[in-house]
Amino acid sequence: MSSANSPVLHWEDTPVPCLEGDTALEALLRAGIAIPHSCRAGACQSCLVQAKSGAVPAAAQQGLKDSLRAQNYLLACLCRPEQDLTLAPPGQGVRIPAFLTEADWLSDSVLRVRLAASEPLGHRPGQYLTLFRPDGLGRSYSIAGDDLELHVRRIPGGAMSNWLAEAQPGDAVTIQGPAGDCFYTPGDPTQPMLLAGAGTGLAPLFGILRDALRQGHQGPIWLYHGALNERGLYLTTELQAMAAEYPNFAYRPALLDRDGPLPELISRDHPKLNGWRGFVCGDPTIVNMLRKRLFLGGMASRAISADAFLPATLK
Amino acid sequence: MPTLYEQLGGAPAVEAAVDLFYRKVLLDDRINGFFEGVDMDRQIAKQKSFLTMVFGGPVSYSGQDMRRAHAHLVARGLNDGHFDAVVENLGASLAELGVAAELINEVAALAETTRADVLGK
Fold first, then answer.
1. Is CATH 3.40.50.80 correct for A193-308?
2. If one looks up domain A94-179 in CATH, what number appears?
3. In chain B, which residue's Cα lies nearest the Cα of A308?
């Protein structure tokens, strides 16, 4: 590569001098940009960044999950720019105005909220957005479909959930996103998939399920929705109808008081998960238990996507 | 003369070994208590760094790095027996992947060089 044709590297809007043979990480650090980094060998993935424009060298995506590759994530330490490239910190997406179009109760405690945005968010079902009400209070919610469908658990005393429960169609909000790497990527359409979550962890899973079916996924898809008891389930009619329509889809409501803990139930149904793909969503405790169970069952770590809902504003 | 890392197969070999190794570690009751409640994705990334290092690959953590990273585990009782168990799981994983015994010995010897720092001695 001659220096006359050296590629131009940008960090957001700032041009970064890139010497011949430099990795993007070396160039960025030399320019005084504080990129988190550790091993400098593509193993620790600390220096994950997102390409906003330009060609991503294939070597820079070594070892990344498909969902990260699909969003143009790369490892700065493995990236030797071949062409002009603009990099940025791992994405938080854009912030755009939106308004509430519809809200209805899916159960005693789960409110379905639909939003319309002033421009497309460019999300994939299963990713999440942060919703801000006019006074600036923000909460993150997973996106349950192609449209901006959210499942909001009403929390006693919860500032946002109670506000949404009282909100009217047309009420203005701001949304920021999309974020998260828990979504369907086509890959092998015959690969068996296991989707498991509890509570409103169903929201991203419902989005991923519909996305996979729409994209023609042919392999078996098992959806486990965990709840303490019947009252914790929702969308049961819709999911049963989908199971009747799609022979490769199995819906498995899992009640703690009837079926025991969800990870054990999954192990009983599927003692061997080698070659499967998994999605786990819900509160961090259940997500960690499920993720570990799928991994110990033989699922490859790279084939497991997890989204743990944090109780506070930040995800 | 190819390096140990090259003989083992480089980054793809790390990729192939990491799940096998970490699964063994999580199933090993002698040591899995140290991994309770840790974030699995982050832990897998750390294990990849560790494997790259003991494969003789391009990761170089200093002794100080290793001490800092394990100090909280030493405080919880991490000892020589635990270290031996990790090396044993590492050897078993490589054997399962068909790596020759003399290369496994070289990997174990590299892992051995981190013992004092990992255990804060």
1. yes
2. 2.40.30.10
3. B39
